[in-house]
Design brief:
By secondary structure, this protein is mainly alpha-helical. The chain is 77% helix and 0% strand. The radius of gyration is 17 Å and the shape is elongated. The chain starts with 13 loop residues before the first helix and ends with a helix.
Protein backbone atom coordinates (compact mmCIF):
# COMPACT_ATOMS: atom_id res chain seq x y z
CA UNK A 1 0.00 0.00 0.00
CA UNK A 2 1.56 3.28 -1.08
CA UNK A 3 0.63 6.59 0.50
CA UNK A 4 -0.33 9.54 -1.63
CA UNK A 5 0.24 13.03 -0.31
CA UNK A 6 -2.12 14.80 -2.70
CA UNK A 7 -5.60 13.88 -3.81
CA UNK A 8 -6.32 12.94 -7.44
CA UNK A 9 -6.63 16.00 -9.64
CA UNK A 10 -10.31 15.70 -10.51
CA UNK A 11 -11.54 15.40 -6.95
CA UNK A 12 -9.64 18.31 -5.44
CA UNK A 13 -11.82 21.06 -6.96
CA UNK A 14 -14.68 22.60 -5.02
CA UNK A 15 -17.35 20.92 -7.17
CA UNK A 16 -15.77 17.49 -6.88
CA UNK A 17 -15.22 17.89 -3.14
CA UNK A 18 -18.88 18.83 -2.82
CA UNK A 19 -19.89 15.76 -4.82
CA UNK A 20 -17.81 13.50 -2.57
CA UNK A 21 -19.28 15.21 0.49
CA UNK A 22 -22.83 14.45 -0.72
CA UNK A 23 -21.87 10.85 -1.48
CA UNK A 24 -20.40 10.28 1.99
CA UNK A 25 -23.31 12.03 3.72
CA UNK A 26 -25.93 10.09 1.77
CA UNK A 27 -24.09 6.81 2.35
CA UNK A 28 -23.84 7.52 6.07
CA UNK A 29 -27.49 8.49 6.51
CA UNK A 30 -28.67 5.42 4.57
CA UNK A 31 -26.52 3.17 6.77
CA UNK A 32 -27.99 4.61 9.97
CA UNK A 33 -31.56 4.33 8.64
CA UNK A 34 -30.88 0.74 7.57
CA UNK A 35 -29.54 -0.06 11.04
CA UNK A 36 -32.66 1.33 12.72
CA UNK A 37 -34.97 -0.68 10.47
CA UNK A 38 -32.89 -3.86 10.72
CA UNK A 39 -32.68 -3.63 14.52
CA UNK A 40 -36.48 -4.00 14.64
CA UNK A 41 -36.81 -6.57 11.86
CA UNK A 42 -34.35 -9.40 12.39
CA UNK A 43 -35.83 -11.43 15.21
CA UNK A 44 -36.25 -14.17 12.65
CA UNK A 45 -34.27 -14.51 9.44
CA UNK A 46 -37.45 -14.13 7.43
CA UNK A 47 -38.14 -12.55 4.04
CA UNK A 48 -37.96 -8.99 5.42
CA UNK A 49 -34.65 -9.61 7.21
CA UNK A 50 -33.14 -11.27 4.12
CA UNK A 51 -34.32 -8.39 1.93
CA UNK A 52 -32.65 -5.91 4.28
CA UNK A 53 -29.49 -8.03 4.29
CA UNK A 54 -29.41 -7.87 0.49
CA UNK A 55 -30.08 -4.11 0.43
CA UNK A 56 -27.18 -3.13 2.71
CA UNK A 57 -24.29 -4.22 0.45
CA UNK A 58 -26.24 -2.93 -2.56
CA UNK A 59 -26.12 0.55 -0.97
CA UNK A 60 -22.35 0.14 -0.87
CA UNK A 61 -22.28 -1.13 -4.47
CA UNK A 62 -24.24 1.89 -5.75
CA UNK A 63 -22.02 4.26 -3.73
CA UNK A 64 -18.96 2.60 -5.27
CA UNK A 65 -20.42 3.06 -8.75
CA UNK A 66 -21.01 6.77 -8.14
CA UNK A 67 -17.52 7.15 -6.67
CA UNK A 68 -15.98 5.18 -9.54
CA UNK A 69 -17.51 7.50 -12.13
CA UNK A 70 -16.02 10.56 -10.37
CA UNK A 71 -12.52 9.11 -9.89
CA UNK A 72 -9.75 9.28 -12.50
CA UNK A 73 -8.17 6.20 -14.03
CA UNK A 74 -5.59 4.56 -11.81
CA UNK A 75 -5.20 2.10 -8.96
CA UNK A 76 -7.64 3.95 -6.69
CA UNK A 77 -10.38 3.68 -9.32
CA UNK A 78 -9.69 -0.04 -9.74
CA UNK A 79 -10.01 -0.61 -5.99
CA UNK A 80 -13.35 1.25 -5.99
CA UNK A 81 -14.55 -0.89 -8.90
CA UNK A 82 -13.42 -4.04 -7.08
CA UNK A 83 -15.35 -2.97 -3.99
CA UNK A 84 -18.49 -2.34 -6.06
CA UNK A 85 -18.31 -5.82 -7.59
CA UNK A 86 -17.53 -7.35 -4.18
CA UNK A 87 -20.55 -5.64 -2.61
CA UNK A 88 -22.82 -6.85 -5.41
CA UNK A 89 -21.59 -10.42 -4.91
CA UNK A 90 -22.04 -10.01 -1.14
CA UNK A 91 -25.69 -9.02 -1.68
CA UNK A 92 -26.28 -12.19 -3.71
CA UNK A 93 -24.40 -14.34 -1.18
CA UNK A 94 -26.40 -12.86 1.73
CA UNK A 95 -29.63 -13.64 -0.10
CA UNK A 96 -28.52 -17.27 -0.38
CA UNK A 97 -27.09 -17.41 3.15
CA UNK A 98 -30.33 -16.07 4.61
CA UNK A 99 -32.01 -19.41 3.88
CA UNK A 100 -29.53 -21.07 6.23
CA UNK A 101 -30.10 -18.77 9.18
CA UNK A 102 -27.86 -16.71 11.45
CA UNK A 103 -24.56 -18.61 11.16
CA UNK A 104 -24.11 -18.49 7.37
CA UNK A 105 -25.28 -14.86 7.31
CA UNK A 106 -22.61 -13.91 9.87
CA UNK A 107 -19.94 -15.77 7.89
CA UNK A 108 -20.85 -14.05 4.62
CA UNK A 109 -21.30 -10.61 6.19
CA UNK A 110 -18.04 -11.04 8.09
CA UNK A 111 -16.09 -12.01 4.96
CA UNK A 112 -17.57 -9.05 3.07
CA UNK A 113 -16.82 -6.62 5.93
CA UNK A 114 -13.24 -7.85 6.11
CA UNK A 115 -12.40 -7.49 2.41
CA UNK A 116 -14.48 -4.35 1.90
CA UNK A 117 -12.83 -2.75 4.94
CA UNK A 118 -9.39 -3.47 3.50
CA UNK A 119 -10.44 -1.88 0.19
CA UNK A 120 -11.77 1.16 2.05
CA UNK A 121 -8.43 1.59 3.82
CA UNK A 122 -6.59 1.47 0.48
CA UNK A 123 -8.86 4.16 -1.00
CA UNK A 124 -8.57 6.28 2.16
CA UNK A 125 -4.77 6.09 2.04
CA UNK A 126 -4.74 7.17 -1.60
CA UNK A 127 -7.03 10.13 -0.79
CA UNK A 128 -5.04 11.39 2.18
CA UNK A 129 -4.24 14.75 0.62
CA UNK A 130 -5.01 17.86 2.69
CA UNK A 131 -7.68 18.90 0.18
CA UNK A 132 -9.83 15.95 1.29
CA UNK A 133 -9.26 16.31 5.02
CA UNK A 134 -6.70 13.51 5.40
CA UNK A 135 -9.48 10.87 5.31
CA UNK A 136 -9.11 9.82 8.97
CA UNK A 137 -12.77 8.77 9.39
CA UNK A 138 -12.58 6.66 6.22
CA UNK A 139 -9.36 4.99 7.37
CA UNK A 140 -10.69 4.27 10.86
CA UNK A 141 -13.98 2.95 9.47
CA UNK A 142 -12.20 0.65 7.00
CA UNK A 143 -9.83 -0.69 9.65
CA UNK A 144 -12.72 -1.35 12.05
CA UNK A 145 -14.68 -3.09 9.28
CA UNK A 146 -11.69 -5.36 8.64
CA UNK A 147 -11.41 -6.27 12.34
CA UNK A 148 -15.17 -6.68 12.77
CA UNK A 149 -15.25 -9.03 9.79
CA UNK A 150 -12.84 -11.33 11.59
CA UNK A 151 -14.89 -11.06 14.79
CA UNK A 152 -18.15 -11.98 13.04
CA UNK A 153 -16.64 -15.15 11.65
CA UNK A 154 -15.40 -16.09 15.13
CA UNK A 155 -18.80 -15.27 16.62
CA UNK A 156 -20.56 -17.40 13.98
CA UNK A 157 -18.62 -20.40 15.26
CA UNK A 158 -19.60 -19.66 18.88
CA UNK A 159 -22.50 -20.79 21.04
CA UNK A 160 -24.98 -17.93 20.64
CA UNK A 161 -24.45 -16.13 17.33
CA UNK A 162 -26.73 -13.14 16.83
CA UNK A 163 -27.50 -10.70 14.03
CA UNK A 164 -27.80 -7.84 16.55
CA UNK A 165 -24.19 -6.96 15.76
CA UNK A 166 -25.07 -6.06 12.15
CA UNK A 167 -27.18 -3.07 13.20
CA UNK A 168 -24.29 -1.89 15.39
CA UNK A 169 -21.89 -2.35 12.45
CA UNK A 170 -24.09 -0.34 10.07
CA UNK A 171 -24.60 2.43 12.64
CA UNK A 172 -20.86 2.73 13.23
CA UNK A 173 -20.12 2.75 9.51
CA UNK A 174 -22.80 5.37 8.93
CA UNK A 175 -21.44 7.63 11.65
CA UNK A 176 -17.91 7.43 10.21
CA UNK A 177 -19.21 8.31 6.73
CA UNK A 178 -21.11 11.28 8.16
CA UNK A 179 -17.98 12.43 10.03
CA UNK A 180 -16.00 12.19 6.80
CA UNK A 181 -18.64 14.32 5.05
CA UNK A 182 -18.48 16.91 7.85
CA UNK A 183 -14.69 16.96 7.62
CA UNK A 184 -14.88 17.55 3.87
CA UNK A 185 -17.38 20.37 4.42
CA UNK A 186 -15.11 21.99 7.01
CA UNK A 187 -12.12 21.64 4.66
CA UNK A 188 -14.11 23.22 1.80
CA UNK A 189 -14.98 26.21 3.98
CA UNK A 190 -11.32 26.58 5.01
CA UNK A 191 -10.15 26.56 1.39
CA UNK A 192 -12.86 29.05 0.37
CA UNK A 193 -11.80 31.39 3.19
CA UNK A 194 -8.15 31.16 2.13
CA UNK A 195 -8.88 31.98 -1.51
CA UNK A 196 -11.40 34.75 -0.74
Amino acid sequence: MSTQTSAPANITGAGERSSLLRLYLGRGVLAVVWALVFAKSHEDVDALAVTLLIIYPLIDAVSSLIDHRATPDGSERRVIAFNGVLSTLAAIALGVAGAGGVVPVLHVFGAWALVSGAAQVVVGVRRRGPELGKQWPTLISGALSFLVGITYNIQAAGDNPSLDVLAVYATGGGVWFILQALLLGWKSRQLRTRTA
